[in-house]
Amino acid sequence: xxxxxxxxxxxxxxxxxxxxxxxxxxxxxxxxxxxxxxxxxxxxxxxxxxxxxxxxxxxxxxxxxxxxxxxxxxxxxxxxxxxxxxxxxxxxxxxxxxxxxxxxxxxxxxxxxxxxxxxxxxxxxxxxxxxxxxxxxxxxxxxxxxxxxxxxxxxxxxxxxxxxxxxxxxxxxxxxxxxxxxxxxxxxxxxxxxxxxxxxxxxxxxxxxxxxxxxxxxxxxxxxxxxxxxxxxxxxxxxxxxxxxxxxxxxxxxxxxxxx
Length: 260
Prior knowledge:
By secondary structure, the protein is mainly alpha-helical. It has a single domain (20-257), classed as MFS general substrate transporter like domains (Growth Hormone, Chain: A). The chain has ten helices and six strands, in the order ααααββααααβββααβ. The strands form three sheets. The chain has a two-stranded antiparallel sheet. Strands 3-6 form a two-stranded parallel ribbon. A two-stranded antiparallel sheet has the order 4-5. Helix 2 (21-50) packs antiparallel against helix 3 (52-73). The longest helix has 30 residues, at 21-50.
């Protein structure tokens, strides 16, 4: 309930045409990844030394500290993030406030998603059906719009497809890439054993370095948004190409040196 809203909250701290908005988002992303690198190293080593229960427990403590800080300092946000329709927050359905319904729905959704992971094949087929249906409805809606609206929505749809591809690949960091590091990478560097999970810190560390440089010394304009989007996709392709180069340099056991 936090991750999906924090970017909207940040956006509300800036005016609509504020040139500092893009820079603010870049620095915000750097801040998020400071937490990511600290979590990868600390939770990774704790899980490696004492077991996964302690690793996840440490992550829970970190999240609790973050929530406390957010609640204590939310006065700094002023009116940013407040609902434009405050009367809806007090509206009740079947005697339950809207927030309560959202909270209950979130817990129910978590249970449903857990079942989906257990019975993945059935739900994959179900999601394909839902996706095709939604696509049909979307095409029908577009066909009823004016030529200008149709053109803009088609352009947006193309960007959304590439956006989904980007995050589908990025999500492999915690699964496919992590398993590759565990099974196929020689994780001894200078006689120090680096657990696979700790290697997850490489990604946020890179974002911190380059994000700081871009956020400090560059200002992005809205008209270059598509170019930045394309640059992000190319960078992603280069990262996976680096993995391919590493595979080419593997030994007879399928292992590759860490620095590759």
